[in-house]
Amino acid sequence: MYSIVNSGGLHGVTSFMVRVETDVSSGLPCMEMVGLLASEVKEAKERVRVALKNSGYPLPASHITVNLSPADIRKGGNAYDLPIALSILQSMQQLPERCAEQFLVVGELSLNGELRAVGGILPMVMEALRTGIRKCIVPKQNVKEAGVLEDMRVFGASSLKEAADFLKKSKEEQTILYENPTLRDEEKEAEAPGILDFSEVDGQEGAKRAAEIAAAGFHHLLLIGPPGAGKTMIASRLPGILPPLSRQESLEVTAIHSVAGKLLKQGGLIRERPFFFPHHTMTAASLTGGGNSLKPGVISLAHRGVLFLDEMAEMRRSTLDVLRQPLEEKRVQISRNTGVVEYPADFLLVGAMNPCPCGYYPDRNRCRCTESEVKKYMGRVSGPILDRMDLVAVVKTPEVSKLIRGRLRDRAANESSGSIRERVLRARKIQEKRFEGEEISFNASMGVGDIHRFCRLSDETQEQMTQAFRRMHLSARGVHKVLRVARTIADLEGEEEIGMEHIGEALLYRAEL
Q1: Does the domain made of 198-438 have the CATH classification 3.40.50.300?
Q2: What residues does CATH 3.30.230.10 cover in the chain?
Q3: Contact 99/83 with Cβ under 8 angstroms?
Q4: Mean pLDDT over all residues of the chain?
Q5: Which of 22, 55, 125, 379 is the most buried (most CB within 10 A)?
Q6: CA 362/CA 1 separation, integer angstroms
Q7: How far is CA 454 from the centre of its chain?
Q8: What stretch(es) of the chain map to CATH 1.10.8?
Q9: DSSP summary character for residue 415
Q10: Cα-flanking dihedrals φ and ψ of residue 182, to 5°?
């Protein structure tokens, strides 16, 4: 007997529908699996056979053929065990004919028939909805993730037998057993992570202003200063002033983390912008992603969020240089002999570094580095990477009197993240209105054509700006970055036209390069 069960496969952060076709017929007893399968899918044959036996469904002495269609797309991962098992049960007439026709089915089986969580559920559910499938059977651990989309009715099974028993029930009985996505959303909403506040940073007004501009326009930021000056404090508080994720951005971020297997514990929709703080000894592969299963790397996990690279000058230059293309194209392409995948990588890069090997240049009372040593140290970060930074802020060692006064007397005088975020959100709303109907969301994403449309200058401002650009010998990329930053500064001030004061402030953040 012939049967079909719908499942899903992954290619990057997108999914494609897979038809698990099974035929059980007389002939030499065996189980064949075809359909351009990766090794982990081929191994599903033994897992399914033993799981069926231990669940009370021993395989007959028949010729079983399982095909995963379409046959021209490579299929990997551990999500096909459950659909294969249910398809075999249908062909064995242990389940009603065509009972799983309107379901998406995914899940890994253990040898005793229990279901284990799988990654990439959200992209599969999104693709299923696009093709008209509005019901799914997933492992219990994946229920929150599958229920992110309210149009999808989700049944969470803990075992193969539970999934089979569910399909034997009538549609009315099944309706009672579906999960409630609204309740799951409310539970997720209640989980509010603690966010660090800018009121805890004493002094450093210039660096905090740069962080505000970076958050408002999603501009890349480089902090340069001596050890202990507060670079990490400022960077770690940046997520607290960023605009919230839109619904579409939340789906994008959640899909990437789902494919990477990072949602198995928390589940649900990610509503906070990601913040990643990897160690400076990481490799280029950990940044871009890859491996046998072509998983997303750190720069993709930081999509729509912040990637903080501390001690940039201590990182391998080859590792930093892999950021060149993603910073421009907002995506990363991974090519291996098993295939080519593309992951989004639109992140806000925040870098921090010391100005010299000892960290105290240009304070000659403490710094003993020679000029050549300073130049060599700064040269560890390549020019093309530095040129891609929109803002460069110097973080100086704060005065002891400010630290003591700030800690013991008037800490409340420091501006809080909440008040800074209000200005950021106002600037964000201006950008939303400006880019309505466009594919971009922030000023930092403006292309050359967008800059000509939205960064118009008066004749006087343009003349003064041209002279400043010539004195600073800026590259074409540098010119465009100054204009984007000036547009954001004007938005923060609520000004429709970019003035010379906005250009002047934007140029200050390029002067340190």
Answers
A1: yes
A2: 2-188
A3: no
A4: 90
A5: 125
A6: 80
A7: 28
A8: 446-513
A9: P
A10: -65, -45
| N residues, the chain | 513
Kindly write down the DSSP assignment for every residue of 11-60, as one continuous string: ETTEEEEEEEEEEEESSS-EEEEESSB-HHHHTHHHHHHHHHHHTT-PPP
Helical spans, DSSP H, in 135-237? 143-146, 160-168, 171-177, 181-189, 205-217, 231-236
Q: Over the stretch 428-483, which tens digit does the pLDDT of each residue have?
A: 999 999 999 988 999 999 999 999 999 988 888 888 888 888 888 888 888 999 99
For 362-418, what is each residue's pLDDT tens digit?
A: 888 999 999 999 999 999 999 999 999 999 999 988 776 666 655 545 555 789 999
Give Cα 48 distance to the centre of its chain. 33
Q: What is the DSSP letter of 498?
A: P
CATH class as words, domain 446-513: mainly alpha
Q: Which residue has the tokens 């036996």?
A: 53
pLDDT given for residue 57 in this prediction: 95
Question: What is the pairing mode between strands 306-309 and 348-353?
Answer: parallel
The yes-or-no verdict on residue 180 having pLDDT over 60 is yes
SS3 of 252-304: the string is HHHHHHHHCCCCCCCCCCCCCCCEECCCCCCCHHHHHEECCCCEECHHHHCCC
Q: How far apart are CA 512 and CA 334, in angstroms?
A: 34
Quote the CA–CA distance of 37 and 1 in Å, as a whole number: 23
Q: Are the beta carbons of 26 and 62 closer than 8 angstroms?
A: yes
Distance from CA of residue 409 to its chain's centroid? 41
| Alpha-carbon dihedral angle through residues 430, 432, 434, 439, given to the nearest 10 degrees | 150
Dig out the tokens for 140 from the structure: 């219990």
Q: pLDDT at residue 189 above 60?
A: no
Calpha distance 298→303 (Å, rounded)? 9
> Which segments of the chain belong to CATH 3.40.50.300?
198-438
